[in-house]
Structure formats: structure tokens, C-alpha cells
Design brief:
This protein is of the alpha+beta class and 528 residues long. It contains seven helices and 33 strands. The strands form seven sheets. It has an eight-stranded parallel β-sheet with strand order 10-9-8-7-6-15-12-11. Helix 1 runs parallel beside helix 2 and helix 5 runs parallel beside helix 6.
Length: 528
Amino acid sequence: MWSPDDPYLYDLDVALGTDRVRAYVGLREVAVRQVGGFPKLTLNGKPIFSLATLDQGFWPDGLYTQPSDAALRFDLAETKKLGFNAVRKHIKVESARFYRHADELGLLVWQDFVSADITGTAGQQAFLEQGREMMRQLHNFPSIIGWIVFNEGWGEWNREETGRIAEQMKAADPSRILNAHSGVNCCASKGDSGKGEVIDHHDYNNTDPAYPDATRIAMDGEHGGFTLRTPGHMWPGPPAVIYSGVADKAALTARYVDNTERFYLEAAGAELSGSVYTQITDLENELNGLWTYDRREIKVDPAAVRAINLKIIAAGASAGADRTYPGRGDWNLDEGSGTTARDSAGDSDLTLTGDTGWAPGVTGTALTFDGDGDSADTAAPVLDTTKDYTIAAWVTLDRLPGNYATAVSQDGRRVENPFYLQYGQGAFAFSTPGGNRARLVTTPELNRWYHLAGVRDHATGEIRLYVDGQRVAAVPAGPDVVSTGPLSVGRARFAGNPTDFWSGAVDSVRAYDRSLTDAEVTALYEAR
């Protein structure tokens, strides 16, 4: 099967009488499948992270026309050498040789429709007709795995029509992934049509990442754009300093590696299916390429870029492979010393960080936190938060938080964690993303032990909060959110950052992969 790791092509000879045709065939299958709880891009039945550059196809001695076939191949070959496995062919249709080179080199191709700011009916019809003709013309190239209809709202006439066009184009070629709108969060976009198979954000500032819904994969359709001037290799005239500038080759390399590792490594192994770095070469007035416009100078250290790129692709290939949920945890917290709290129900031990310490508990000892960066974390998720679960703990507060303090949470990849067992804004609460909070309004007595329990129950569609063994609140739970990170005692996480640290003590933490009944929670409280 054809893939970037093994771009195997079969030679094909067809003869009819004295007529002979030589061609080649590549066999591959692309799809969207559930992997590790997320819709993910798959190639030949396995998850793959599409790590691409933006390829606009300009040359200084021909603009949209390449000077030679070797020049056409050069950009693709250098993309591959840098460790990328894909390109986004941006607002341009290349000659057939381009796609043959991609087939032979083993590069996935996301092919744009040629978007433009067209407003008239005749122009819109021409856009669609030319798009369909492009699809027919390029249909046989195995490297092309997806079509991108609109870019940042260019020429988009309305959201509903974008959805209808997406459905039409997918029906015309069901063998490929249909991206209705790259940069749906950007610029002149009319908003998400809800159609196609991709949710695609442009995220140059790393503040608005794409996240999959129930059926569509998430892609970062453009990011990066780090600008470096290279005197002697720039187009005449004033350049546009795009996004952010760096001083030299070392700085650009460091910026690329740091940005890629920080924002795409964990995401590649979880919710994200691909990213597109802007861009492979400089243009006339864009100096954000990895190569100069004249292709004379590479602007980064290729070994460092290749190393991080291969790391990202490997994370994408292993997505979901190590996602296990023990579903049970018992932390008595009676060690009294050291930096490890043992899970008596399994292997999900807690590791103490910061100034987390030990103090007398409800029984034996407990963990104590000063509210300033302390926590105790497992190495991996304990609960599958897309199913029923219960979390419980004994807690004290030695001061009331300004906003929220979280006793127990479990990390995920969304802005909000899948759940929070917490106190804040005048109430104990069991909370899930989207503002779903089962709350008991109260001002707790400081340094007094309270038993908190939170239950997620799919049969009733609710989350429930229990305080001291009694059900005190129940509200609709909202949609399920996948957990990808550790269960944490003493902190929460929001937008990827630890926050809402507990100030007080926590004892006898329990986790269950089912929704406990009222009687079972009462019994847990009474057992102390």
C-alpha cells in the first residue's frame, strides 16, 4: 500500500492491438476513524498525522511557472528531507509532473480549490465548474488525499451554500477527505457550515486551535509564518514582515522547534490530525519560508527541524495506542512522607510536585497544599470520562479561593478539563466543560473535613454532587470530553495551563468507572 514511509507504485502497461500506454498505479485508502476517542485521519487503516508545509508554487524567474521539472521537484524533495510528510498546495493547480513527484517521493497532498474574492453569480459558477474539472483532472494521483474548497472565506458567498458545496464535492469524490473551509475561524469566513470532514483553523498566534467534533477531524490549516530576512536572497522592494520576526538562522530553527514541540506534539497524539506550516519558501514580499525565494539558502538547521518533525509524525502514528483507563483508583494517602502516594487499587500512583506535603488526615495522613503550584499527579488518565464515572475525596480548606480551587481533576486536550471537583464562587461544585456545575452554595468552615463526591451518569444525562454523603445537586452534564492526561489532586488545568490550586488538605481519594448510587456514596462517606 502506498504511504509516505513506502510510496510504492505499480508500473502499468496497457496494450490494445498496436497501441500501448504506460502508466503507474498507487493503492491507498484515506478515511476518518475514531482513534483514542477522537475522529482522526487514517491512511490504510492506521492513524497518520499530516505534517505539511504551505506550498504556493512561486519562482523568481517564472512566478507561477517553474523554470524546469527539476525546480518543480526541488520544493517537494526538500520538504521531504526536512521530515514533513505532506504539502498543502495553496490556491494553485500544478502541472501533472508536480503530483507525480509527490507520488514518487511519498508526500500527502491537500489540494486547494483556487479561491478568489468572486461575488457575481457567473464567477461563482465558474469557480465551481473549474473546481470540479480540477478534481477530474487530478483524480488518479494517489498522493492527493483531500480537497480544500474555501480558504479564509475568500469568495465564500454564504455559510449554507458552503455546506451544500461541500456535500456535492464529497459525493463527486468519496475516496478523499473533503475540507469545506480552511481557516474557518479567520478573516472573511462566514462561519462553520458544519459540513465536510474537517474543522480547520488558522492559528498563527497559537490562541485558537481546532478541535474535532463528533465526526470531523481537526486540522491546523496554517500556522508559524516566522520571518527571517536573508540579504542577497530577497526580492527587490519592501517586504511584508509577517506574524513574527527572528534574528538569524539559529533563532528561526529554535523558534520552529519550540513552536512545533509545544503546540503540536501532544496534540498529534490526541485530537489533532494535521498541521500546515507557513511556508516552504519565501515569496516576493513574504520572508517566512524555510528556504529563500531563489532556493539558494536554507534558513533553518535541517537536522533539528527533521528531528522534531519525525517526533511529531511518530506521535500521530501512535495515537490511541497507549490510551488505557484503569477505571479504578484508591489513594489512602497514609504514606506520611516521600514523593509518592500509592494506588492500592492498581498502578496509578500519585507523584507529588512543588511544595505538596503531608499532614494529619481523616484517618492516617493526608496531602497538604499551599495553593501556589502544588499538586499530586498520576502518570496517565485513570477514568474514561466519555463513560460513567465517580470521583470522591475528603477535603479541607485553610482559606477560601478568590475564584476556584480544585481538589481533584483529570486533564484533557480541550480548553476545560473533563471534570473538576472544586470549591469556588461561594459553592462546592462538580463541574464539566461548558459551565455545567452541580453546586452547593455554602461557606465552608476552614480546616474542617468535608466529603465530596461527583458522579457522571449517562443513564440520566446528568452530573451529581454529594457533600458529606448526601446528594445536594444534579444538572445536565453536557457533552462528553475525552481525557488524555493525568488525574491530578490539588489543581485543575485550563487552556493547557495548571491553575486553581487547592489550599488545604485532601485525603482518601477514590475513582470508579461507574456511577455510584446515592446509597453507595453515603456508605463511602460513613466508612471514612
